[in-house]
């Protein structure tokens, strides 16, 4: 009879990355996304260095994707707001001047 393999632990950083990746879309906009991205990168490095002892790479990647998508959406929203309000100012100046 063979001995069972020890259970692999899940990286705490991967769990944190996934949790904050989800939270950034609902409760913690930019801070949550930054935490998700930082913890996701740290988790992937930790998992690689553990040589099979840690699990959770999928959670870390999901947290990274959610965090980066949120940051990209926030940047696009800021750029869109500047373009929209800048266009309004130009329009007002053009017809009043």
TrEMBL record:
InterPro entries: DUF4190
Residues that span the membrane, as ranges: 12-38, 59-92
Protein name: Membrane protein
Organism: Mizugakiibacter sediminis
Keywords on record: Membrane, Transmembrane, Transmembrane helix
Domain DUF4190: 13-77
């Amino acid at each position: 009879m063979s001995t069972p393999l020890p259970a692999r632990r899940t990286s705490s950083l991967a769990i944190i990355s996934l949790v904050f990746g989800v939270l950034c879309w609902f409760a913690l906009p930019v801070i949550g996304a930054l935490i998700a991205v930082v913890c996701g990168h740290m988790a992937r490095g930790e998992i690689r260095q553990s040589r099979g002892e840690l699990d959770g790479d999928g959670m870390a990647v999901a947290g990274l994707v959610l965090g980066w998508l949120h940051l990209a959406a926030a940047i696009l929203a800021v750029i869109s707001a500047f373009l929209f309000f800048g266009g309004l100012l130009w329009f007002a100046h053009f017809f009043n001047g």
